[in-house]
Design a protein that fits this description.
Blueprint: H1 15-25, H2 36-45, E1 51-59, E2 62-67, E3 70-76, H3 78-83, E4 96-101, E5 107-113, E6 119-123, E7 131-136, E8 140-146, H4 153-165, E9 169-175, H5 182-194, E10 201-203, H6 212-218, E11 224-229, H7 235-243, E12 267-270, E13 276-279, H8 293-298, H9 300-306, H10 323-329, H11 335-364
Parallel strand pairs: 3-5, 8-9, 8-11, 9-10, 11-13
Antiparallel strand pairs: 1-2, 1-4, 2-3, 4-5, 6-7, 12-13
The structure holds guanosine-5'-triphosphate and zinc ion (ZN).
Length: about 375
């Protein structure tokens, strides 16, 4: 398979020459998702003698990093840790880092992290008002909901906002189709479409295997995919089906509900056909903080309508001449979709306010 390039050392400040040098060294690392954009960044961020590798596992301060020679364990240097302002500045799964390998190549130290091309992040679960990285440099996200207990269009919209905000392409997966009839499945899809969601939907069953081929087909060599969704929807089982082994543990479910929380860490897996897959633990909450592009992308119907409101700062509640309210009254816009828009926007703005307040306080201290 030719989607690979070889690494090389990068010299700081030599981005022009780095790019040139890359032509003949740009081999195996592109198999891990490296492209020219990162090469240019490496010229800026890495120092002489350092190499780049991709983070595949993060586990309590230990990083597993992978380059063309394989995986080794790495630690971040004190200097690098000191330069980070928040947990989001720390490497997460999918990040490209500059590192120095030990002489025998058995371990490494992380000295810098390259900027992210795309990312998945959410507000920490619970009261904590801070962003938590889920994965970095992701090309597309599979948002999984199961056809039975987990299906919920409002939650789907919440995931879509998160995914769009991080410049990641969304794909919807409806899992466990073996538990519903063909008519029921059709109705679920219609419900998604009625909410104005046009994202591609792939219906799958890990039991019968239906839809799995379609997933394999959308996954391209050298591209990175992340699987997100609630606990128990079948993410790990899907990965096991795609990898063809049982490397990930799955949880057994009782008759009454979904599986227990079984995935304990995030990891990047390279599939045989060359695509990469990042597994994430099931999420109970997808809190939003300061999302703007993500909201615009996912609620573009409301954005477009509001251009026709009489007042440019219309809140679409009680103002005269509101195009959004009119569209709802006339049945052109789903009330539920609009209510979810208001809810997510308020939540995101509120969190952004207290986040800004917290940061300001930290600065003055
Ligand atoms: N009926 C049915 N059950 C499935 C399907 N896929 C997975 N399951 C079952 O659902 C349960 C949960 O599956 P997992 O793959 O562990 O779910 P998960 O999304 O990885 O869960 P977390 O690791 O907690 O995030 C297991 O008992 C699976 O056997 C499916 O397509 N149909
Ligand atoms: Zn309005």
């Amino acid at each position: 398979m030719v989607c690979c390039y070889s690494a090389g050392s990068f010299v700081k400040g030599e981005s022009g020459r780095v790019a040139e040098k890359i032509e003949n060294t740009f081999m195996k690392l592109s198999e891990l998702g490296l492209d020219r954009w990162f090469i240019d960044q490496a010229g800026e961020f890495c120092e002489s003698g350092q190499q780049i590798a991709r983070v595949t596992v993060v586990d309590r301060g230990w990083y597993t990093v992978r380059n063309e020679d394989g995986e080794v364990l790495a630690r971040a240097t004190g200097r690098f840790l000191h330069s980070t302002e928040s947990t989001c500045d720390m490497p997460c799964v999918g990040d490209w880092v500059c590192l120095r390998y030990q002489d025998d190549g058995s371990a490494a130290t992380i000295h810098a992290m390259l900027p992210r091309k795309s990312f998945l992040q959410r507000k920490f679960a619970g009261k904590r008002v801070e962003l938590q990285m889920i994965a970095a440099n992701v090309d597309a996200a599979f948002i999984v909901q199961s056809c039975n207990y987990d299906f919920n269009v409002s939650r789907l919209e919440r995931y879509l906002v998160m995914v769009n905000e991080g410049r990641v392409e969304p794909l919807l997966i409806l899992s466990k189709t073996d538990l519903v009839s063909a008519d029921e499945l059709e109705e679920l899809i219609a419900e998604i479409r009625r909410a104005g969601i046009n994202t591609r939907i792939i219906a799958i069953s890990n039991i019968t295997g239906s839809g799995l081929e379609e997933i394999r087909e959308v996954m391209d060599c050298g591209r990175t995919y992340c699987i997100v969704g609630s606990s128990g929807v079948g993410k790990s089982t899907l990965i096991n089906r795609l990898t063809g082994d049982d490397s990930l543990k799955t949880g057994a479910v009782g008759d009454s509900g979904e599986g227990r929380h079984t995935t304990v860490r995030r990891q990047l897996i390279v599939l045989e056909q060359g695509a990469m897959l990042i597994d994430t633990p099931g999420m109970r909450e997808v809190g939003l903080l300061g999302v703007s592009e993500g909201m615009d992308d996912n609620f573009d119907d409301i954005q477009e309508l509001s251009l026709s409101c009489r007042f440019s700062n219309c809140s679409h509640t009680s103002e005269p001449g509101c195009a959004v309210v009119k569209a709802i009254e006339e049945g052109d816009l789903q009330e539920e979709h609009f209510q979810n828009y208001l809810k997510l926007k308020m939540e995101s703005d509120c969190n952004a306010l207290s986040y800004a307040g917290k940061r300001k306080k930290k600065k003055t201290l």
